[in-house]
Amino acid sequence: MQVKAADRTAPTHRSPPMRRTHSRRTPARRWTSRKAQGLAYAAPTAVLVTVFFVLPLLLVGQMSLSDWPLLAGDRGVNAPENYTDAADSTLFWPAVRFTLLYTVIVTVVLLALALLLALLVQEFRPGAGFFRTVYFLPSALGLASASLLFWGLYSPTTGPLGSILESLGLVDDPVSFLGTSTSALLSTVFLIVWKFAGFYMLILLVGLQRIPHEVYEAARMDGASRGQIFRSITLPLLRPSLALCLLLCVTGSLLAFDQFFILTKGGPDNSTVTVVQLIYREAFQRLNLGTAAALSIIVLAVLLLLNVLQFRGLRRADES
Fold first, then answer.
1. Distance between CA atoms of residues 3 and 153, nearest Å
2. What is the pLDDT of residue 22?
3. Phi and psi (nearest 5°) for 91?
4. Would you call 191 exposed, middle or buried from its count of C-beta atoms within 10 A (0-12, 13-18, 19+)?
5. How much is the average pLDDT of 57-76?
6. For residue 203, what are the contacts with CB-CB under 8 A and spacing of at least 6?
7. Which helix (H) or strand (E) covers residue 92, if one does?
8. Reduced to 3 states, what is the DSSP secondary structure of residue 168?
9. Local structure of residue 4 (DSSP, 8 states)
10. Which residues pair with 288 in a beta bridge?
11. Which comes out higher in pLDDT, residue 188 or 1?
């Protein structure tokens, strides 16, 4: 009986090695299944990016190196004629200078106002939620719709702004908000600031609410003033949100099209033509897709360069 009992227990001592071998294979199978699931989840996005970004970008690159009229199609390679024609255009450098000037003005004014609004409504006080909603409401309106709205407001004949200023005694004659290059630029900047100040305020408000209150309390206990707290605590800890706003604002300003196309049509005397408007003129007015594609590639290269420089500058600031 003792021998039989020993024989019965013998198989139980051989089973653990088989279980160990099975446990070694399980993580590999799980990793393979997770990898397959990840590829399955990423496949639709990869297809969309390929179809709607990579392939059009390759097509634009081909157009920029070819003689490609809008109504005739590809007539063969003519590189680098499209790029030289774009640079030699009489409107190219004025459009570049105007776009850069517009970008600087909009970025400075818009981010300064958005930061001020975010500081005003960051505390949970009576009425703060109402003002947050009011400031953000213009962002819900489309840019084309907002441009049409302001085009009506700026109209010297039917717009109410001119008559309001006359009734207040601020002006004697009807105001031409879009009649000169300076007034057209400032009027367009006012439109963009009105529309997007609430959007950037919301981004900065989220960044402000992520700053721990204990840091402010410790600074106040040490006797720091409001200016010192703002310079030494708020701005450094708000740097990621400011960087995001700066990136979005610069990119959007360099690609400005809708507001100038609706308000000024590039006038007066082509003084408010942006680079994207120049691309539109080359493609759909002069019917030259090759030169328009070359301008698009130039704009894309400039945007990539600016984004890289901004990221490097932010990394150096964080490391220091």
1. 105
2. 47
3. -95, -5
4. buried
5. 90
6. 114, 241, 244, 245
7. helix 92-121
8. coil
9. H
10. 69
11. 188
Please state the pTM of the whole predicted model: 0.84
Which DSSP helix (H) or strand (E) runs through 319? Answer: helix 289-319
Tokens, residue 193:
């600031």
pLDDT mean over 103-130: 89
Q: Over the range 51-82, which residues count as b (16 or more CB within 10 Å of their CB) and which as e? A: eeeeeeeeebeebbbbbbeeeeeeeeeeeeeb
Q: Is the pLDDT of residue 245 over 80?
A: yes
* Three-state SS at 77: strand
CB-based contact 64:301 (threshold 8 Å)? no
Angle at Cα 242 formed by Cα 252 and Cα 306, nearest 5°?
A: 50
Q: How far apart are CA 137 and CA 196, in angstroms?
A: 10
**DSSP secondary-structure letter at 125?**
-
Question: What is the distance between the alpha carbons of residues 287 and 279, in angstroms, rounded to a whole number?
Answer: 11
16 preceded by a cis bond (ω within 30 of 0): no
Rounding to the nearest 10 degrees, give the CA dihedral for residues 199, 201, 207, 212: -150
Token digits for 317?
A: 């600031």
Is-contact 241 204, C-beta < 8 A? yes
- Summarize pLDDT for 131-185 with one digit per residue, the tens: 888 999 999 999 999 999 999 999 888 888 878 888 887 777 778 889 899 999 9
Which residue do the tokens 């909009």 mark? 106
Question: Mean per-residue pLDDT for 31-49?
Answer: 86
- Contact status, residue 162 vs residue 156, Cβ threshold 8 Å: yes
The encoded tokens of residue 71 equal 């109504």
Report the amino acid identity of residue 37.
Answer: Q
DSSP 204-254: HHHHHHTS-HHHHHHHHHTT--HHHHIIIIIHHHTHHHHHHHHHHHHHHHH
138, 200 in Cβ contact below 8 A? Answer: no
Q: How many CA atoms lie within 13 A of 150 on its CB side?
A: 27
- Taking a C-beta distance cutoff of 8 angstroms, is the pair 229, 220 a contact? yes
